[in-house]
Design brief:
Elements (H helix, E strand, L loop, with lengths): L1 H21 L3 E4 L11 E4 L2 E6 L8 E5 L8 E5 L6
Parallel strand pairs: 1-2
Antiparallel strand pairs: 3-4, 4-5
């Protein structure tokens, strides 16, 4: 009887881990991002340039991956509006 409970517990753990793998976030390159619009993924790349636009509304920060502006492959945009 103890062996049966142990086996059932092990199967439950395997099932939970298998489900978690199915929901794991996908990692893609900056160049691949254009092929995954509307999907949830982690975009990986080397920061090639960045600009903090203090005089623009919302104080945007632009982070360009893989190649610097104006030939960037992927741009991250972060808006920080501190109510100024």
């Amino acid at each position: 009887m103890i062996c049966h409970k142990t086996r059932a517990s092990a199967l439950l753990v395997i099932a939970v881990l298998w489900a978690a793998l199915g929901h794991a976030q996908t990692s893609i390159s900056a160049a691949e991002a254009k092929n995954h619009v509307g999907e949830r993924a982690t975009v990986c790349g080397e920061v090639a340039s960045a600009r903090y636009a203090t005089t623009s509304k919302g104080n945007p920060t632009f982070i360009n991956l893989d190649k610097p502006y104006p030939k960037q492959i992927f741009t991250l945009l972060n808006l920080v509006d501190l109510g100024k």
